[in-house]
């Protein structure tokens, strides 16, 4: 069983540029915490949002759905979204489903606010 305590979120917001760094296991138990943190950044005025997935050790389909929905939301609400790739093991869920081709992955140096 995966425990929510193995998941951490670090957020920064500076002049409309936000960064959320997700650490640990992103799954059905932890996705609501990530959604809450991201919603708070957007509510506080983030117009550019980078989500750093490089420290994610596991991601399930609920985590994948979070990023697909967030990408759709960025298009409809007009904010800029960038995702920093997770490690190869966690990236596999994006590659297998084809989502990697449709999500806005950036290099850390490109998207860091």
Distance between the termini: 35 Å
Strand content: 25-35%
Order of helices and strands: EEHEHEHEH
Structural class of the secondary elements?
A: alpha/beta
Helix content: 25-40%
Per DSSP E runs of 2 or more residues, the count of β-strands stands at: 5
Question: Order of strands side by side in the largest beta sheet?
Answer: 1-2-3-4-5
Low-confidence stretches: none
Q: Biggest sheet, in brief?
A: 5 strands, mixed
In angstroms, what is the radius of gyration?
Answer: 13 Å
Shape assignment = globular
3D structure, described in words:
- The protein is α/β, with parallel strands linked by helices and 113 residues long.
- Helices cover 39% and strands 33% of the residues.
- A 5-stranded mixed β-sheet has the order 1-2-3-4-5, sandwiched between helices.
- Strand 1 and strand 2 form a beta hairpin.
- The mean pLDDT is 91.
List its traits.
113 residues, five-stranded mixed β-sheet, 33% strand, 4 helices, globular, alpha/beta
What is the compact description of this entry?
The chain has four helices and five strands; from the N terminus they run E-E-H-E-H-E-H-E-H. By secondary structure, it is an alpha/beta fold. Helix 2 links the parallel strand 3 and strand 4 (80-84).
């Amino acid at each position: 069983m995966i425990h929510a305590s193995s998941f951490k979120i670090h957020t920064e917001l500076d002049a409309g540029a936000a960064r959320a760094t997700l650490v640990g296991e992103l799954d059905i138990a932890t996705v609501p915490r990530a959604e809450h943190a991201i919603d708070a950044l957007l509510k506080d005025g983030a117009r550019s949002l980078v989500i750093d997935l490089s420290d994610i050790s596991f991601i399930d389909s609920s985590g994948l759905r979070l990023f697909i929905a967030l990408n759709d939301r960025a298009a409809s609400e007009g904010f800029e979204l960038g995702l920093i790739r997770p490690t190869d093991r966690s990236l596999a869920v994006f590659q297998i489903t084809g989502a990697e081709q449709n999500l806005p992955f950036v290099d850390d140096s490109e998207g860091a606010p």
